Amino acid sequence: MKSNSITSQINKKTDRAPLAYVGSQTSHEEDVFGALFDGKVIKRFVEYLRPYKTNICLAIGAVLVVTFAQLSIPLIVQHAIDEVILVDKTDSIPLFLVIIFFSALITINYGANWLQDRLIGMTGEQVIFDLRKAMYSHIQNISLSFMDKTETGRMMSRLTGDVNSLQEFLENSVTAFGDLVLLFGIVIIMLSLDFTLGALTLSVVPILFFVRIFWLPRARIAFRYARETNSIANGALAEGIRSVRTVQSMRRECVNYHLYNKKVEENLSAHLKSARMAQVMVPVVDTLTGAAMGIVILVGGALVLDNSLDIGVIVAFIFYVQRFFDPIRSLTIQYSVMQRAMASGKRIFEVLDVPISIADDPKAIRAEEIRGLVEFRNVTFSYDGVNPVLENLNFTISPGETVALVGPTGSGKTSITSLLHRFYEVSEGSILIDNIDIKKYEKSSLGEHISMVLQDPFLFTGTILENIRYKTDKATLEQVVNAAKTVGAHDFITEMEHSYETEVEEQGRNLSLGQRQLISFARALVANAKILVLDEATASIDSHTEKKIQIALKKLLKGRTGIVIAHRLATIRGADRIIVIKNGKLVEMGPHKSLVKKQGLYSQLHKLNYASFDDVRVD
Amino acid sequence: MKYRSYAVIAIGTTLIASLLQLAVPQLLGAAVDDTLGLLGTSNESASSIRESLVQTALLLLVVSILRGFFTLIHNYTGEAVGHMIAYDLRLAFYDKLQKLSFSFHDKVHTGELITRGMLDIEGVRMFFSTGVVRLFLLTILIGVGAYLLLSKDLFLGALSLSFVPFVAWRSAIARLKLRRLWLALQERMGVIGRIMDENLTGIRVVRAFGAENYELKKYKIAADQALELAGQRIKTRVASTTIMTYAYFLAMGMVLWIGGLRVQEGSLTIGSLTEFLAFMTILQLPVRQLGLLVNSFARASTTGRRLFEVLDLDATISDLPHAKNLDIDKGSVCFENVSFKYGGNDSPLTLNKINFEIRRGQSLGIVGPPGSGKSTITHLLSRFYDVSDGKITIDGQDIREVSLESLRTHVLTVPQDPFLFTSSLESNIAYGNPWASNDSISEAARIAKIDTFIETLPDRYGTLVGERGVSLSGGQKQRIAIARTTILKPSILIFDDSTSAIDAETERQIREFLKTPMQSSTTIIISHRLRSLIGVDEIIFLENGAIVERGSHKQLLSMNGKYAELYKSQTNLFEEENFEK
Questions:
Q1: What is the pLDDT of residues B477-511, one digit of tens each?
Q2: Taking CA atoms, which of A229, B209, B230, B552 is between 20 and 30 Å from B89?
Q3: A557-608 per-position pLDDT tens digit
Q4: Helix (H), strand (E) at residue B551
Q5: Chain A closest-CA separation from residue B516 CA (Å)
Q6: A15–B435 C-beta distance less than 8 A
Q7: How many domains does chain B have?
């Protein structure tokens, strides 16, 4: 739409509506409601309930007891009235016996109620934590190509929102079961106490169902719309918070406020509409309750007159009628909870069903010690199976040697390092470490021998110490400090307010990019792997730190096999050998001096004298 | 308060609805007595009793219909009040966040703010939507009901209400506990959310270190703690709700017992006993909801407090009363003895007595190691923070004395790591001026050398940015940021290392393009590529917040100091190469 307005107006020089939005312009519409019953989802979900079988059975038992007690109370009252209170004292059961029975019943009810709520609540929480953990640990193992395609925000909403709606469902479903039993119980008791009166009283129920059938689809649209406007407004708020620095420097506060106001207004009216929709059922239910009680009094009164009904039954009926609509009401609420849960469950199991494309070979070996000999043998690789990113790559790196990968953007350098780490699987050929195919190693042991420093140094929440230590949590403070000293990070760390205990701010904002880079170097050093893969930061590192980094790099690479995606001349020249990649093919290989003399692509790049090779355009 | 009328309606209708509800047990009691009367009476009086039965039944129907109607109104208006309050809170919260200074946003995690804006407002809304109305309803039901019952039979009435004080006492205790648990659980869930979020965003680091198990362990510790708290919460809640129900049924048993004895004695009718029992049935649901209510109160008081913590903050940086607009004449910028620290008194100085002056059309280059305070200078000039000491003037006007709006119209920074919105490219470029013409958007794109790239995209300027649209490289993002800034034609333009990801040749071309609009603007360039600074009028070399060297490129080179050393380190490679040739 926007592109049309551009093309039609680009020559007109007319003003048009402001190009201002808040919140995402792409709709994140995901099905809020699914089918009412999805057998597959239920089946999968049941797997997660299995460990709590005993608790669930107990809970169901408790629900039955509670329902039974609830049903019995009016009966006891009826009995008390008809058989005890209204009968001559002499030949009746004493009242206090009835009361003792009543007390016993409510005590049982108390115990069962306690057990039911506790078991349901606890099991619900446990199952949900299990499920979330299962997703989380599955995500740790699914291939990066899936993660590349998935937005973090959407994954997070599956891990939190979707899991929560399953919890809601789980907790409600046991009570829903109780409601159902209660409903049937009331029907049976009413009919057996007096069939005519029972049938007449229950005649109001079909009317309620009929009204509900008309009401539900409309109400669902209103409820759904309210939820959607909620997430739109929340999205806009989140964006506003994340972009606050830009907003303030561009003075968009006013414009944004008005735009946000519109979204929140829409949200308000959607909620008011859905509230109207929800409340409209109240008078209906109340009218029907009134009608049912009227029937009990009129018909019941007539029956009493005929001497075919005891007065206590009328009292019991009054009790039942008052309780009757509660389960119907909560069951219809349950309906949308169930739909929501089905949709959420489907999305959750979608994630859990993403296959682990890179799994350990059953006969995989642990790599205890390695020398660090790396070989790429006829390696071809493609992300999509169609366009090869790497083609027939062959090279060997000796233990302790440092190799610089050089080439224009998109030539496939990062893919080489990702393959070595088995983030992805090679399409053809093989990669060998110490002459053994990497597929034959256990993945976890491979990770112990290959350290990786990424271009964008990611720091976690926690102290600097924790960040350097990271996975190697057994590393002593001394080891950490030594690593930091080696890479030249010690000085700036000790200058910070709490030294190594300084908390890293969100996204490492209290550290410069260069400092974060040095910390990630120290992290790699502490991990102490034989093979080091380093994706050098592009030009965004400042020259001061650059110098430090060059020194650090040398120390880092000492005694290790190094593969460096290099952008800086200094780094490239420091390498033992240079591999020049272009369009996924190896074009040149050799030490700096000989490549310069060769007058090939490398010397051509080199002559351009850029600080970085990355943005150099090569035809 | 515009929701006052709604609140009044809600309260009024709640009153009516609860009174109507209280009429039901009385009608039922009368009906039972009437029916009982039928048993022992002659035919003539039976017909009049029947008539009264019909009357009672009809009355019951009418009362129920009316009650339903008034319940509809009070529920709706109650919810409406909640939603309106939430609406106001959302706007106020958004507005406040936009206005709070950088120092606030530095300290508070964005995730936490988002949670406050979403969950906390929802908690407060729930409280007003349902909590308040229900509490009011319950109070009236118990209050008026107590009066009716006690006046009918003091002892039996007291018995049927005996569970209420117990429930109130229990819920007060539970409220305190639950509130504490709720807070702790919220905090733990926040930690879990952060761990998951970081795991997803940092997934490459996780994989690179083979740290999957470590990450799982980290998650498990946090999850176990949260589960433990959730369990405690459930235990506390269940313990209090079930004992409340128990108390209710015990009271009912007592009523049945004592009432039954009274009926046997003949001092009470069966109808009155029914009335007492029916009244208790009416109370059963609200009493059960008391538990929920307690929860909602606990939640609202914690969330409300957290929310108002933010809303009550004063924007530390705001206009002075009657602040004038910045009057730009020459556009000369002057730092006089400017010192600055981010933290409190004992925190280190980030800038220490900085002095410089840039005249109109001139440019200043800033060089220095990371953390030396370069970016801080730009933040101070736009007044995202206030100076700790000294002053900054533009054309002789202290920037603290002019309106923020006018200051930030004239002073603009191109950041190193710009924030791009999930929106079209054109609205990203026109972010600071959404009314900009298409021509000026494409002109800005041309200056930033991003136009040819945009033209190759299928939707051109309408192409969406982000995960569902085009993903941009660091250099492309920086160029969008340059376009976004230059379209506003600021009088004072700052480049905060904003060409770091752009190759040297393109950077040179952009600077060429910029020369025309730049001639009228005062420019500050922070760069690590010293070649970008060769043409500027003055260069200052910052170290630990202080200027250690200053002068033109040539002067600095001849000084043979830190600048010269740095320059050499960036160029000696080439010289060596020449030497080899």
A1: 888 888 898 888 888 888 888 777 776 677 777 77
A2: B230
A3: 888 888 888 776 777 777 888 888 888 888 888 888 787 788 777 777 766 6
A4: strand B546-551
A5: 22
A6: yes
A7: 2
